[in-house]
């Protein structure tokens, strides 16, 4: 059976039927999640993003994007009279991205902008990235995301070469296709999730300091104060790029946050958790975090994007 949009829905047995009558058996945990954790409507998603230049830099090299995936029908001609009915589905997936241009130069933001644009165009035109794909072939979805990052990398490198520059950027993306979420990361921007009162970070900073911590050559405490904390060994447009893609589940009470390192230079994980758990709208929480950065000096550009899911009554109460 389908959900009215040609997407697979799960029965209690863990079997789905697609719009072409192709039956596929889902993993038991996926089937259970679909049954007990229904996909939210767009009206239930509270998401907000904000970027700020900070108090030191003259140019903002950060960029962010919030978007939803839909299936759309364009009617070019018909003998029907009147409206054919809705021609766009409810959201099939939700995407958030942040990118932090590297270098601090006036043109640093061009690399981050190009990377975000390239990711959008690749996913839209070069893939069949839908919730049904994720449910039926998760590994293929991971490879398509890696390909999208590599395409963005090639775009940034090519444009830089044509203009005599070497732009680079971090790129961190949340791609939610209910009930799965793909976390893509290159560089040192971050993704955090709060679930059941616990803050978790699902990205690993691709910095030289992190490499030394993992090898045992540097303690976590010394790494925090090291100049190597901000030296990237992997980034879009960099000489080396190794995008990391992780797959996790999504449930309704989760809260999700993406940020550039302009936030984490001034705000601790405990403070991020404290703000994310407030009974406030995503906009209020994001603005609170950015204001905290500015109060503490705002030495870098800062970008924060947050998403939470709630019913209409709850969203109205916190707005």
Account of the protein in words:
- This protein has a 5-stranded antiparallel sheet. The chain has a 5-stranded antiparallel sheet with strand order 5-6-7-8-11. The protein has a 3-stranded antiparallel sheet with strand order 1-2-3.
- The protein has 2 domains: 1-36, no CATH class; 39-74 and 90-318, Phosphatase 2c, domain 1 (4-Layer Sandwich), CATH 3.60.40.10.
- It has helices at residues 28-36, 108-125, 131-136, 138-162, 208-215, 220-225, 261-264, 269-276, 282-295, 312-318, and strands at residues 9-10, 15-17, 23-25, 45-52, 62-69, 93-100, 171-177, 180-186, 190-195, 198-201, 244-249, 255-259, 302-309.
- Helix 2 crosses helix 4.
- It has 319 residues and is α+β, with helices and mostly antiparallel strands.
Strand content: 15-25%
**Based on DSSP secondary structure assignment, what is the total number of beta strands?**
13
Mean pLDDT level: 85
CATH superfamily name of the largest domain? PPM-type phosphatase domain
The dominant shape is: globular
- Stretches where pLDDT falls below 50 for ≥5 residues? 1-26
Give the terminus-to-terminus CA distance: 36 Å
CATH topology of the largest domain: Phosphatase 2c, domain 1
How are helices and strands ordered from N to C? EEEHEEEHHHEEEEHHEEHHHEH
